[in-house]
Amino acid sequence: MAGNGLCKPREIVMRYLIYLSILIFTVSCSNASSTSEAIKPSKEEKYNWRLVTSWPKNYPGLGMAPERIADLVEEMSDGQMTITVYGAEEQVPAFGVFDAVSSGSHQMGHSGGYFWKGKVPAAQFFTSVPFGLTADEINAWVNRGGGLELWREIYAPFNIYPIPAGNTGTQMFGWFNKEINSLEDIKGLKMRIPGIGGEVLKEAGGIPVTLPGGELFTALQTGVIDATEWVGPYNDLTFGFHQAAKYYYYPGWHEPGPMLELLINIDAWNSLPNHLQVIIETATKAVNQDMLDEYLAKNNQALTELIEVHGVELRKLPDDVIEEFRKISNKILDDLAKEDEVISKVYDSYLKFKNNVSAYHQISEDAFVESRNK
Amino acid sequence: MAGNGLCKPREIVMRYLIYLSILIFTVSCSNASSTSEAIKPSKEEKYNWRLVTSWPKNYPGLGMAPERIADLVEEMSDGQMTITVYGAEEQVPAFGVFDAVSSGSHQMGHSGGYFWKGKVPAAQFFTSVPFGLTADEINAWVNRGGGLELWREIYAPFNIYPIPAGNTGTQMFGWFNKEINSLEDIKGLKMRIPGIGGEVLKEAGGIPVTLPGGELFTALQTGVIDATEWVGPYNDLTFGFHQAAKYYYYPGWHEPGPMLELLINIDAWNSLPNHLQVIIETATKAVNQDMLDEYLAKNNQALTELIEVHGVELRKLPDDVIEEFRKISNKILDDLAKEDEVISKVYDSYLKFKNNVSAYHQISEDAFVESRNK
Q1: Taking CB atoms and an 8 Å limit, are B356 and A285 in contact across chains?
Q2: Is B288 within 8 Å of chain A by CB?
Q3: Is the reported ipTM for this assembly greater than 0.90?
Q4: Does a structural domain hold residue B364?
Q5: Minimal-distance CA residue of chain A relative to B253
Q6: Does B145 lie in the same domain as B237?
Q7: B137 and B19 co-located in one domain
Q8: In total, how many domains does chain A have?
Q9: Does residue A371 belong to the interface with chain B, where contact is any CB pair within 8 Å?
């Protein structure tokens, strides 16, 4: 999975100019900003905040999470706080969310940490890394295993306070017009796959491509790419990938349980009275689970439709290909951790938790599921 | 897992007399009850509610969930609503929670639905049944697959509104002083195991026993029972079972992902203004995830300590024993569903969701975990 809206160079310049104009306009015209009350939070004052996202407005799953957070906050605060949610490109580009919240032009954002790997490489561990933590495991690491403290520490220099805000569950490897029967079939494969997953593909001889979600269907249909990953059946069905590709491969080794994030400008956060802070944290925690519930309930139905109605061929990646990907992934992550002390500290905490929790899962949920399926 | 506090017959009579006295006293003396405002909820009125539980006060995991719900509600409502949490036996017996909330003597309760199987047999599906749904799967069924609507429908005649309120994750099969090498070893085995799990053991030739948690250690040590299940490493370590039994068996086929419940008296619920209702629902949803995070993070550490420090022998149940348990479980559940229309409707919804979600999990999270562990 990756955000909609990756751009070509000329578009990027254009969009950033628009974004800059909006930013200047917003800062100069802002009179509803609550940062002016930073010194003395009021229990009665009304707060009208703006939230920018990396997703199309009301996009199923990903895009609905911030809408639900906004609804819950307004209801729980009995109208004291409202949050207006903007889709990608409405006020800032899909990948301008981090900067918008950091600068304070917008109090809130909803996105995925691995989009900021250029600025904060360690942020990737709080979304998903290849062969990493599943949804339950990353929840446990972040909320109860020391992860959240590290996450807040690494975002603090950017004046951002992060809260875990949704998970898609294990994704699919994606849509292919070429069969993958061995490592040889990876050589020269042009696939849309961002982040560390893309680096792994490259190391195995493939050609990773970055394209926005909205361009994937045409690129796949015209043969510009041989394959693409996106999210999973529920989201993939709406994009109609089954009309442009033949094989649907699993497992999603590259994104086992990506956690989304709510970003809050720290000055804006400090301006809130305590009860509104707890309302935001709790609403977001509830939505973190709700998104996973939604994907899990809907992925079922969508996969059945893809196979039974649209004749999609479901394929498993060959074992030797997965094994090679795993070896390369581990090397890339080990090398990344050597880059600086911060990444090393986060990776160390992540890896220790992963080793423990995966050992425990083997004798609890995994062993149970095996016994149920026999 | 089962609640602390199962009683011998004479004790039950005594406890119910005490409970009845408290009930009469409470109803006659109640002046803080909010049910009197049922007609016109006030936005300003203070609400001071009482919550009874089936767990010892502040018991790790299970007992901390209602405490956290109470804290969140007080903070989010900025003190408008407070909830006082009582441990089992403080105001009503562990298994008197459902009746206390139903009668309105207490506005809220925290417990597990399978304790009420005598009154509401279908309630068991909303906690856990053998070879049933895991934690993520039951969340998805209840919140996004039609389960919650059914649950509320079957509790409504008892004047109770349920909200999902925590999950322990897959439990362990438990502590044994006899090795289980074949089905023969189940014959005559005296094991503390409640609910449908106990019925399965009986059908396989074992002798299921019901005892409160606090009596398990002594019963195991003195040979009154040969084995006991409880929860998992985090809770089991605190009870010291490793000092009374030799083998620790998995997987927990009988409780793959038990969901706990917050029970609310419907008249009390209707007396609340909307923002407090949303605050309670959202706090409980956040705690539902928090409990699973806690168990997942702590079970790791506890299991390692049990094995490395206390020399516990971790054992897997033989395949043929699991297979026999699965066959018996399916038959018992099928027979149960034939008892009446309500159970049949719930079981039908549960089974359809289980078949779909387990098929999907096989090609997503399960396939991923397999590829990670190789």
Answers
A1: no
A2: yes
A3: no
A4: no
A5: A368
A6: no
A7: yes
A8: 2
A9: yes
B65 touches chain A (CB under 8 A): no
Query: Does one domain contain both A91 and A231?
Result: no
Q: Name the H helices within B5-112.
A: 9-29, 64-76, 97-103
Burial status of residue B335 (CB atoms within 10 A of its CB: 0-12, 13-18, 19 or more): exposed
Residue A350 domain-assigned (yes or no): no
Name every chain A residue with its beta carbon within 8 A of the beta carbon of B361: 369
Taking an 8 Å cut-off on Cβ atoms, the answer to whether B77 and A360 are in contact is no
A225 in a structural domain: yes
Consecutive H or E run containing A200: helix A195-203
Work out the number of other CB atoms within 10 angstroms of the CB of residue A89: 19
- B359/A300 Cβ within 8 A: yes
Residues of chain B contacting residue A273, judged by C-beta atoms under 8 Å apart: 78
Please name the residues in contact with A156: beta carbons below 8 A apart, sequence gap of 6 or more.
A266
DSSP H helices, A232-273, are 233-239, 266-270
pLDDT tens by residue, A107-119: 999 999 999 989 9
Q: pLDDT (tens digit, 9 = 90+) per residue, B289-314?
A: 999 999 999 998 999 999 999 999 99
Token pair belonging to A15: 């969009």
CB contacts, 8 Å: B355 with chain A: none
Q: What range defines the domain where residue A124 resides?
A: 11-38+47-168+257-297
Same domain, A158 and A271: yes
Same domain membership, residue B267 and residue B249: no
Q: In this structure, are B206 and B323 located in the same domain?
A: yes
Say if residue B161 is in the same domain as residue B55.
yes
From the list A248, A227, A226, A252, the residue with the least C-alpha distance to A237 is A248
Per-residue pLDDT band at A42 (split at 50, 70, 90) = low
Cβ contact B298–A144 (<8 Å):
yes
Q: What share of chain A is helix, strand, coil (3-state, %, to 5)?
A: 55, 15, 30
**pLDDT (tens digit, 9 = 90+) per residue, B162-218?**
999 999 999 999 999 999 999 999 999 999 998 899 999 999 999 999 887 778 999
Q: Do B276 and B127 belong to one domain? A: yes
* A-chain residues near B303 (CB < 8 A): 360, 363
CATH number of the structural domain spanning residue A183: 3.40.190.10
Across the A:B interface, residue pairs with CB atoms under 8 Å apart total 233
CA-based angle B176:B179:B182, to the nearest 5? 125
Return the CATH number at B266. 3.40.190.170
- The answer to whether residue B175 sits within a structural domain is yes
